[in-house]
């Protein structure tokens, strides 16, 4: 919880901005300090030890990213918020990579500033012991935390809600299609909570055979069943003091759901073969891409368990629902994999950028991540071109098979363009509309020397639509 004892340092060379931020924050009784350049800011951080820094991007002796880098060395846990009128994808990605807590754009609203400040200050609850544990885990390479990249309004609302409930024991149910980042959000909730020093344990309920799931969840005693040669703690015990993610919760067999409900209500587990219950202290986060309410109606999911899990629902948007975040995510993954594989950091060509925005991303963020990783590994060009990303959009047999090289007469059509075609003639006869479509596609490919990108542009359709049409023709045996 933020208090009047919180000290905030504003760094901006524009006096009007400093005054505006000072009035917003001092009205909330924060202790506000100001600096007009990086040198002054670093001196004030050393002498006054602020709880939060708000810094402009462009200043006379450097920029906000320079200050951010120095602060992360000098005071690693000090949250920094960039405030700038010069927004760009590259700057936002770089700021998050360097550890910025948030990124707000001028002209800003009072509510936006206070919301960002409150969230940043609430996140700073690490004790010295916790800091040491976190640093040790990072040094060992433990954990798979990664930032939630994006500025879409739908995403920001969910992040605010997640932060608000992170330190409660209320069960969180994360809903969303595959690839939207449900585990990333679960880890985010854990890291924003006062349990962040404890374990984060994830269990994919769909990945285990039914006979093993009960033991994995609740543990077993030695001799509880054939093969149980030693006692074993279940995931609830292993996560005690921290967070347990029950991924794909909709896959839990109905006969285990009653036992799971009891653990959530009583906060104790009964090991298989055990005689005494074991107390556990766990914040449970569940996730699923299934419609649990519909499963309740079908009788495949217990209604009481659904209500117990659905205390705080978080429905993640698909990537198609947050298109403004696609360039940001693509750039983030590009930098990540270029660094990971020691590859040259290249740029996306303009057709690639258009493809990112035109594609409907059925695999969501995971699909984008996988495509960028493959391009980083396989690209031979000076920049990333469309062909680096399209080979696996449709099945390989469709993507790699050559287009037949026979000559196709250009159809003569009644209508102004492809969308207006009703009838077309071919060798003096009337052709069905589907045949017209196929002939026009083949004709466009021949005109462009089988360049699918140029052919799609000529036809006024997306490359993905063109490739899917070719796949359809091959599936039906229309093309060899």
In short:
This protein is α/β, with parallel strands linked by helices and 480 residues long. The protein has helices at 15-26, 38-48, 64-74, 89-98, 110-122, 128-140, 153-165, 182-191, 210-218, 235-238, 254-266, 292-298, 303-309, 326-340, 350-358, 364-378, 387-390, 396-400, 433-447, 452-459, 463-475, and strands at 7-11, 31-35, 52-56, 58-59, 62-63, 80-84, 102-105, 172-175, 200-204, 243-247, 268-269, 278-279, 283-288, 312-315, 412-414, 423-426, 429-431.
Per DSSP E runs of 2 or more residues, the count of β-strands stands at 17
Assembly state here? single chain
Which term fits the overall shape? flat
Q: Using the 3D structure, state the CATH architecture of the largest domain.
A: 3-Layer(aba) Sandwich
How far apart the termini lie comes to 67 Å
Number of helices: 21
CATH superfamily of the largest domain: P-loop containing nucleotide triphosphate hydrolases
Number of domains: 4
Q: How much helical structure, as a percent, in the residues?
A: 40-55%
Taking pLDDT < 50 over at least 5 consecutive residues as the criterion, the unreliable ranges are: 125-143, 392-430
The value of Rg in angstroms is: 28 Å
Q: Order of strands across the widest beta sheet? A: 2-1-3-6-7
Task: Report the biggest beta sheet as strand number plus sense, adding barrel if it closes.
Answer: 5 strands, parallel
Give the helix/strand class: alpha/beta
In the CATH hierarchy, the third-tier topology of the largest domain is known as Rossmann fold
**Average predicted confidence as pLDDT:** 80
Which percent band covers the strand fraction? 5-15%
CATH class of the largest domain: Alpha Beta
């Amino acid at each position: 919880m933020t208090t009047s004892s919180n000290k905030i340092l504003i760094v901006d060379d524009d006096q009007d901005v400093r005054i505006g931020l000072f009035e917003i924050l001092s009205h909330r009784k924060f202790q506000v300090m100001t600096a007009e350049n990086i040198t002054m800011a670093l001196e004030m951080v050393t002498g006054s030890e602020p709880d939060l820094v708000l810094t402009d991007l462009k200043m006379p002796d450097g920029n906000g990213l320079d200050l951010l880098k120095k602060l992360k060395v000098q005071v690693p846990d000090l949250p920094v918020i960039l405030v700038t009128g010069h927004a760009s994808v590259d700057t936002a990605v770089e700021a998050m990579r360097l550890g910025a807590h948030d990124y707000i754009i001028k002209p800003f609203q009072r509510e936006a500033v206070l919301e960002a400040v409150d969230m940043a200050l609430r996140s700073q609850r690490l004790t010295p012991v916790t800091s040491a544990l976190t640093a040790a885990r990072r040094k060992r390479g433990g954990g798979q935390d990664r930032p939630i990249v994006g500025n879409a309004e739908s995403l920001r609302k969910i992040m605010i809600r997640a932060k608000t409930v992170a330190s409660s024991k209320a069960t969180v149910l994360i809903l969303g299609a595959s690839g939207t980042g449900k585990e990333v959000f679960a880890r985010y909730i854990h890291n924003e909570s006062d349990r962040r020093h404890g374990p984060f344990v994830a269990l994919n309920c769909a990945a285990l055979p039914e006979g093993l799931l009960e033991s994995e969840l609740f543990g077993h005693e030695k001799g509880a069943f054939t093969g149980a040669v030693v006692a074993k703690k279940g995931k609830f015990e292993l996560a005690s003091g921290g967070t347990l993610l029950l991924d794909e919760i909709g896959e839990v067999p109905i006969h285990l759901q009653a036992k799971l409900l009891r653990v959530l209500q009583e906060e104790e587990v009964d090991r298989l073969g055990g005689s005494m219950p074991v107390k556990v202290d766990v914040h449970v986060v569940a996730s699923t891409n299934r419609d649990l309410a519909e499963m309740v109606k079908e009788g495949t999911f217990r209604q009481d368990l659904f209500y117990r899990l659905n205390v705080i629902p978080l429905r993640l948007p698909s990537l198609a629902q947050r298109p403004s975040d696609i360039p940001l995510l693509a750039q983030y993954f590009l930098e990540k994999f270029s660094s990971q594989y020691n590859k040259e950091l290249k740029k996306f060509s303009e057709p690639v950028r258009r493809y990112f925005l035109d594609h409907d991303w059925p695999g969501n963020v995971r699909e984008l991540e996988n495509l960028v990783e493959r391009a980083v590994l396989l690209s031979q060009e000076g920049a990333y071109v469309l062909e680096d990303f399209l080979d696996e959009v449709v099945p390989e047999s469709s993507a790699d098979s050559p287009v037949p090289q026979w000559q196709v007469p250009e159809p003569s059509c009644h209508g102004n363009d492809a969308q207006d075609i009703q009838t077309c003639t071919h060798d003096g006869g009337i052709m069905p509309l589907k045949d017209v479509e196929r002939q026009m596609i083949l004709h466009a490919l021949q005109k462009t020397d089988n360049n699918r990108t140029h052919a799609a542009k000529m036809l006024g359709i997306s490359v993905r639509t063109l490739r899917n049409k070719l796949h359809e023709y091959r599936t039906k045996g229309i093309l060899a």
